[in-house]
Amino acid sequence: MEMLCTLRSLTDTQRQKLLEHPDKLEEFIDDEEDFGDAEGASFLDLDIGETWHGLQYLLTGTAWEGKAPLDFLVRGGQDVGDIPSDEGTARVFTPDQVKELSKALGALSEATLRKRYDPAQLQEEDIYPGFWEEPPPDLDPEEELFSYFEELKKFAATVAKRGHGLLVFIG
């Protein structure tokens, strides 16, 4: 089963609503509307596909650990929604946590991350999707990771500037 990751901005009202009504998670993810938010801010989302685990590794140097806020792709925030854990996770982060995250991502240079890119190590650590040493012919996993890293930085900065929170959904 493919495990894909989507990041979506959400207002504090929406975040509270999801925490109170976790059964509405799917509706929120599928909803292109405002999810009952009078602030009327349309959400931003970023689909990082299968690169989430590789990015987690580059950001923290670990498969499932690391220090907040850079471990946000696999942990941290508050769990929300009714997703059986083996099928993924959904977690929400507050506007303040997003500001911290944006600052931390902004302080990271691509050069630092490139030093951590080691296909053999990624393979050994069992980093999803697991084809680091023998990628499909039409894919350059290294370039894909770094292009998404840039997207992630921009995305986090924009969400932080809006003063919004973040939903991280892997499933």
From TrEMBL:
Q: Name one Pfam family in it.
A: DUF1877
Q: What is this protein called?
A: Uncharacterized protein DUF1877
The source organism is Archangium gephyra
> In the record, what lineage is assigned to the organism producing the protein?
Bacteria, Pseudomonadati, Myxococcota, Myxococcia, Myxococcales
